[in-house]
Amino acid sequence: MKNTTNTPESALVLFSGGQDSTTCLAWALARYAHVETIGFDYGQRHAIELAVRPTVLQKMRALKPEWNERLGDDHMIDLSLIAKISDTALTQDVEIAMQENGLPNTFVPGRNLLFMTVAATVAYRRGLTVLVGGMCETDFSGYPDCRDDTMKALQVTLNLGMATRLKVETPLMWIDKAQTWTLAENLGGRPFIDLIRQETHTCYLGERGALHDWGYGCGTCPACALRARGYGNFVTGKSA
């Protein structure tokens, strides 16, 4: 059924269950009266992120009454075709490495482009007017579909193609991982930091054995390295 909250204050957050998208969800909940979430099963190697999503959402509801009031439906979309047409370290059991084109083989061509297109379609049906994603080009793995120019071009294309006025928001675009931790603390305090550490998942290899000070993960993949360095800088900056 189409949501009747068809106002500028309604958002759809691309929510994977990782640190960045969880922070973006809190950011949206602080700004919009009605927020829904969307996740994608694309045959990812780190499918554990799909398993943690319901717990993260449940605990976010419990963290703040206003978050519980504003948080609406969650939508899970099957995009397994991505794994069938791509050959990357995120969809195949291969070693993470750099490619000849200068991009890591964790880059899944077309992934964010497809994510945003599907999210826009769901937003159209639900009457939601803002798309929120955790893309960032300040402290990232170099993916071209995470860049600001890509997101701006997508906003124009989606609105032209659907005759809408959707707005694409990327609150992490120009901040590094330490600043992302700081943003999370500003949004939800230490309880939200602990929720991110203990419940979210960002590791590319899907490892969830040891809990590090920055969260779960293998500790060596690019995603873990960025997260760990950012947390270290966050803690150091607070104590400086």
TrEMBL record:
It is an enzyme of class 6 (ligase). It comes from the Bacteria. ATP binds at residues 15-25. InterPro entries: QueC (IPR018317), Rossmann-like_a/b/a_fold (IPR014729). GO terms for biological process: tRNA queuosine(34) biosynthetic process. PANTHER family: 7-CYANO-7-DEAZAGUANINE SYNTHASE. Catalyzes the ATP-dependent conversion of 7-carboxy-7-deazaguanine (CDG) to 7-cyano-7-deazaguanine (preQ(0)). This is 7-cyano-7-deazaguanine synthase. The gene is queC.
